[in-house]
Amino acid sequence: MYKYRINDLLIQLPMKDYRKALKIIPQAINVSLNTFSNYRNIRLTDEQDIPHQKVVLLEKIFGLESGQLENFKPDYKSLKQLLEEWEEK
To answer: Which residues, listed in sequence order, are joined to residue 43 by a DSSP beta bridge?
Structure first.
């Protein structure tokens, strides 16, 4: 499974738009074709990530709300929990 939904979103496009999108999107977010291909193929288990600014641009390009490009929900603790844990030490 991929970390980001880029491929899923691209596959939903008609074939002629899909091919154009593969050329247009890297230009729009100012990365090379190879870098965009790498972004599309980041696996859920990979440590690699897309830089936040590029994620924001991709979400806007695909018409998504913030956080909707991700194929996962990060596991994190609230600041309150972190502070409580810190005090217990």
So the answer is: 2
Tokens at residue 88, please? 């217990």
Within 8 A by CB and 6+ apart from 55, the residues are: 4, 69, 70
> Helix (H, G, I), strand (E, B), or coil: what is residue 65?
coil
- Residue 1 falls inside a structural domain: no
43 within domain boundaries: yes
Domain count, the chain: 1
Count of alpha carbons within 13 angstroms of residue 66, beta-carbon side: 2
Domain interval for residue 75: 6-88
The DSSP output letter for 12 is: T
Would you say residue 20 lies in a domain? yes
- Provide the residue type at 38 as one letter: N
> 24-75: per-residue pLDDT in tens?
999 999 999 999 999 999 999 999 999 999 999 999 999 999 999 998 777 7
pLDDT, residue 10, reads 97
